[in-house]
Each structure stands twice: as structure tokens, then as C-alpha cells.
Design goal:
Blueprint lengths: L38 H15 L4 H18 L3 H10 L3 H7 L3 H13 L3 H14 L5 H12 L3 H9 L7 H13 L4 H14 L5 H17 L3 H14 L4 H13 L3 H8 L6 H14 L4 H24 L5 H11 L3 H12 L5 H14 L2 H14 L4 H7 L14
Helix pairs in contact: 1-2, 2-3, 2-5, 3-5, 5-6, 6-7, 7-8, 8-9, 9-10, 9-11, 10-11, 11-12, 12-13, 13-14, 13-15, 14-15, 15-16, 15-17, 17-18, 17-19, 18-19, 19-20
Length: 404
Amino acid sequence: MKHPLFFIIVFFISISVCNAAPFTPENENLVIYQVEKTALSEKLESLRINMLENKTNSSDLEAYVAFSINVARKKSDPRYFGYAKAALQPTIKQYFISGTHTGLLIHWADIMQFMHQFDEAERTLQRVINISRDNPRTNLMLSAIYQAQGRYPEALKQCNALFTRTSMLVLTACITQIKSLTGNLKDSFTVLSKQVYRESHSNAVNHAWVLSILAEMSERLNKNDQAADFFTESLRLDPLNGFTRSAYADFLLDQGKYRQVKDILSDHLFTDGLLLRYTMADVHSKSNHQSTRQEIRNNIEKLHANYSLSQKMDGDSHLRDQAIFYLYLKKQQSKALALAKSNWEIYKEPADARILLRCAHLAGDEKTINQLREWKESNRYENAVWDQIMNMDGLSGYGKGTTL
């Protein structure tokens, strides 16, 4: 093989200091960047070679896909989900039809869920359930998808299906997370808090996940000190979880703790979402150092290029973060509102409602504000921060951006 120790990656390069435009090679074989050789890259390349040399062996395919997904999660690096998707896509249809390899189908659903292609993820998971009900992970994944879409009764049904099929901690977390969004926040927090301390020696990743749920519940209850403690402990147990790190950064931005935002993100700028929040903290720090201000401009240009490309390639992915970017860093309220509305058509999580509400308030869009009030009331959704947004105060982190 021409490049046995390196991955040939086709992607655009945006070099802000040179004002270069995003570049997409016309020839897919053109090498524009070589990843530094590491133990991890050699392991992945070895698995890739085995997969290519044994194309009829589904075990080699699964080994490569599973390893790629695992690395993607540990490093918060979406490129590895792309590697997994590229490897699995040519054959996934035959596995879907035959139902002969549910493990690969679950991996495909995992990739689709990460890429926010929820319809395909749901279709795949339902196929797995029709083949076998032995894997509780399918119910957890479906519950997460339904929750992201605001389909709370369906999400709760998937949680209930886990009874006797998973640990009490995971079952309790699944149920109380949904209940906390539908009028039972205080009771859900109490029940889950007791359960997490009963099972304090549970699997570290599961424990970290539950602590992140408690952190968000605490924030909505306006128990900010507890929320910070839960976030910190969750990241101690699972330091490479980009979703929890992003949620903690949002929490700190709301508190106006910009230095802490930069501290928790400075070594984790692997994704646009984390870079976005780091840049927002940089902006609010109001540094007069020319180098810092230039770095801010460079990061904003990079994010703008990346989000522009994302709109062309991914369509509906990452719309929430794009709305945040255009509202707070680009000061384009109309575009931010349009993105937030498009996002709300697909995703119905509280964070999606929040950015839409903020955009609508600034634009004086009473129709959208009333629609969100109806959503809040119909779900009996409780959130102290939401009330602050409705009153247009208490938003030091998200409400007072600086124009560069």
C-alpha cells in the first residue's frame, strides 16, 4: 500500500492568518495532510488493513468500526465517526436486510445518532429490536433519540423496557431524566441523588453520565454550587466526554466565569462546539493583548468557515451551535433566529428551546415566544434559568457579547 502508516484525510484547511478560503481537493487521492504516527494511529491502520484484506469477514469490519467509535468518544473527535461510517456504509444495507449482524447495526445506529440523523438511527434500532430484544443498549439509545426530539412518552416507554435488564442506577437515571423534564424535577433530583450514592462504585462511565444528569438538574433548580460539583466530578471520572464538558462550559458562561471556561476547554479544543465556547469566553474576557484579540478573530473566522461548510455538507447537524455562533459572535440576529427555528423543527431539547427563546426575544418575535411558552406549559418544564431569560436578566455569559 502506498501509505501504510498514515491516514489520507481529505478535508478543508482554513488558515486564518493567511486568509485562505476552505479548500476541497478535486482528486480524492491527493495527500494534503499526514497524521502524526502514534500507537493509536498504527493500531487503527492495522485494523483498517485487516478489514480491507478480509472484506468478507464481518468480524474484522466490526473490530475497525468499534475501535473508531471508541476513539471518537474518548478523544471527542468526530473524524473517527467519519472513518467508521465510511467503512460500514457500503455493506450496512445487506446487514439490515439479512439481520445477521446486530452488532454492526447498533454501531450504525450509534454513528447516525451522533450525526443527528435520528430517523435512520431509529429505523436501525427498531430493526435490531425486531431481531432480538437481548441488548438493553438499543432501548437506551432510542430513549435518548426520543428525548432529543421532545417525544417524552416514547422516551419513557423505552426506559421502562429496561426494567430487570440493566443496573438500577442506569434504569433510575433513564426514568428520572425524562420525569425531570415533565413536571417532576425536584422529586427526580432527590431519587437519582440517593441512587447514585447507593451505587457509588458503579462503572465509572455510567457514574459520570449520571452525575452529568444531576448537574443539569441542579442548574435548573438554581443549585449552582451543587451543579458545579457534579460537573467537576463527572469530568474527573470521564475527562474526555465532550458533551459534559460543553454543558459545563455553558453553565460557567451563564455564571460569567470566563476564566474557568478557558481553563476547562484549553486542552480540549477538538470540536467546533468546544472552540465556540472557548472563543465566547475569550471575547468576554475583554483582553487588550493584541495577540489574544488576533486569536479571537482567527477562531471566529475558523468557526465561520467550518459552519459554512457544515451547512453545505451536513444540512441539519449542529444548528444549535450555529445559532449561538451567529447570535453572540457574529451579531447577526436574523440569521441566528432562522437557524434556531430550523433547529427547533428537528430538536426539542431544553437547550434548543433556550437559544430559540433568546433569539426570539432579541428579535421581538412574539409568535415564537408564545409557542415556546406553550411548549413549556404543556410539558410542565421547570428551569430557573429559563425564567431569567424570560425576564431578560441574569445572562452575563450569554447576553452581553463584545463586537470585535
